[in-house]
Design goal:
Strand content: under 5%
Distance between the termini: 52 Å
Radius of gyration: 20 Å
Structural class: mainly alpha
Order of helices and strands: EHHHEHHHHHHHHHHHHHH
Shape: globular
Number of helices: 17
Largest sheet: 2 strands, antiparallel
Number of strands: 2
Length: 292
């Protein structure tokens, strides 16, 4: 397994996707050898030096702790790292939508974490272990770090990251739902987590079937009417980001706090949870026997 590059930058930067591919060598994608870092550094666009959010050390510390703590079960690292990455790397959605930031984080700062987390296990059909290139420079729902940050952003309930732990503790949920637009509606996201926590939806097939049903029903129903949300005051997010310079490192054993935004109205979560539970009864779940 690879270790971190010899040269790890002190600050995050922007790395164009077109510059990534030459460094995605066969040796790296097999988890055998990593680049040295110097040549890659020449291609990075720097971010403003006065912004404390771009220091790399807090993120390196997090991923190293994750690799140690979850060395026996790397999948569980997602639920631990997602809220802490989000609270450490305090971004606006516009900033988080810039793939160049995630390219740099994955390839220059923590390629060893990408390999540790996403190197496949050998199977009869695919005996060679390999990391999918999209884990380094893929879409937001597949790239190693952006998927965690967006999961935390979309599943947090105001400042509360507990729903994020629940969502990221189920790989099927984040794999299936992150790519769907419906999850950007906060009551919908919280209702999905509620069904998961209540054990009403558990398996990948059930989650996929429910997601299909929700999407189909959403074509004719407006979920914001069934479960209204409150408009979010952007001041709270701006203040939270501004506090990054003086914020202490995130706790390892307790969940951090997100932006001091209002929680999703409980009556909206309850209404949508009930509605989705009804949808799930007739959802197209592969392998489920009909009760008719």
């Amino acid at each position: 397994m690879i270790t971190q590059p010899n040269h790890v930058p002190e600050r995050l930067g922007l790395l164009a996707t077109s510059a990534v591919d030459p460094f995605l060598t066969e040796e790296l994608l097999k988890g055998e050898q990593v680049h040295g870092g110097i040549d890659l550094a020449k291609l990075v666009e720097p971010l403003p030096e006065e912004d404390a959010r771009w220091w790399v050390e807090p993120i390196r510390s997090l991923v190293e702790d994750a690799m140690f703590e979850f060395r026996e079960d790397r999948t569980r690292a997602d639920a631990w790292l997602a809220p802490r990455l989000h609270a450490t790397l305090r971004l606006t959605r516009r900033e988080a939508a810039d793939k160049r930031l995630w390219n740099h984080l994955a390839l220059a700062v923590a390629p060893d974490y990408v390999a540790w987390r996403h190197l496949s296990e050998p199977t009869a059909k695919r005996p060679d272990r390999r990391i999918a290139a999209e884990r380094f420079r893929g879409p937001a729902d597949r790239q190693c770090f952006s998927r965690l940050w967006w999961a935390a952003e979309l599943f947090r309930n105001g400042s509360d990251y507990e729903p994020v732990e629940a969502a990221c503790g189920n790989q099927d949920l984040i794999h299936t739902v992150l790519r769907m637009e419906l999850i950007d509606h906060r009551p919908t996201a919280q209702a999905l987590v509620r069904l998961l926590q209540q054990g009403q939806v558990t398996t990948g097939r059930e989650i996929f079937g429910l997601s299909v049903a929700i999407n189909a029903a959403g074509a004719t129903l407006i979920y914001d009417i069934l479960g209204q949300d409150q408009p979010r005051d952007p001041v709270h997010l701006r203040d939270w980001i501004a506090e990054a310079e003086s914020a202490p490192p995130v706790e390892r054993y307790e969940l951090p706090k997100g932006p001091d935004e209002d929680s999703v109205p409980e009556e909206s979560v309850a209404a949508l949870t009930s509605y989705f539970a009804e949808l799930f009864e007739t959802a197209p779940v592969r392998g489920r026997k009909s009760t008719d």
